[in-house]
Protein: Exopolyphosphatase
Amino acid sequence: MAPKRPTGAGAFPIPVEHTVPKPPDPAELYAALDLGTNSCRMLIAQPKGSQFHVVDSFSKSVQLGQGLEQTGKLSRASMARTVNAMRVCRQKLQRHKVRNMRLVATEACRRARNSEYFINQVKRETGLQLEIIQPEEEARLAVISCAPLVSTKTEQLLVVDIGGGSTELVWIDLRNVPMRERPRAIMRLHAGFRQDAGPFAAAKVVDWISVPLGVATLRDQFADVEDDSARFALMSWFFEENLEKFAPSTEVQARENFQIVGTSGTVTTVAASHLGLRRYDRTKVDGLRMTTDQIDAVIQDYLRLGEAGRRSDPRIGKDRQALIMSGAAILQALMRLWPTDRLSVADRGLREGLLYQQMSAQGVLEDTPF
Structure:
């Protein structure tokens, strides 16, 4: 006997309406591109309250500064890799019809004798106009990107941005700023380190420095040292020597209410290694606070692994393994010099600073707490 057919079996299914997300208005979109010594990275975002929502992104290791230490020039191969990456960025900008953008280049282009030729080549082949920014603006943009991570209890702040070709350090005094206003006072620095804050209490920039040593340039300077541990120690010592002119280096600082915020691939990689992440997760890394002992434990683990072990370590990644020890040498020197046993990890930097700067200048960010 055939089974009884259920009631309504022959009825047509009711169509389900799927809502398609409405694409953002191109007039509300902002783009920021950071072309550094090692990487080309871009964000496209739209304002959302006092923050922004990322719509699209791009990141690629182009090694623009490869060989720059020896020749003083950008090589043809590195320029070709970078132009190809810039073509991908152009496609994304065109797809989203972005009108508001800043596309900047940093240390490699500042130092290279043929940077003007390269900038013209990018313009000719992609239609994109790169802008070479000076170290002070690079430092300022890194600072404002970290504003949401600044504790309201912080009185002395050191922001460190470890790049491929340079490292920026900014020391800020927040003691005269009301506690609840301290993150916002950092954001107002987008207008300049020396400013009249008007009716607002201003964050005082005590000193800042741009050291022409980043993860790529420091690695290249000690490439002839064969022993892994010796090379690491020499890199850390050499970086510390280059901080002599940074005013806070010569003064005794109070440990209480002092905060270091570190922004770079080095810092986020060390954090990911500490957490044991085999697959990187920004939500777990950004804002993490690490102790000096935890940072030292990760660095000692890197040294025990050796070059072969680091190459196969999934926590480090193929793009970062060649640069992680020079970055770790910089990080260890910084933690050795200043009076804190904690570091705030920032998965943010120049791109985020460029976005905040553009949005703040056009008044599209809401005046609400971070």
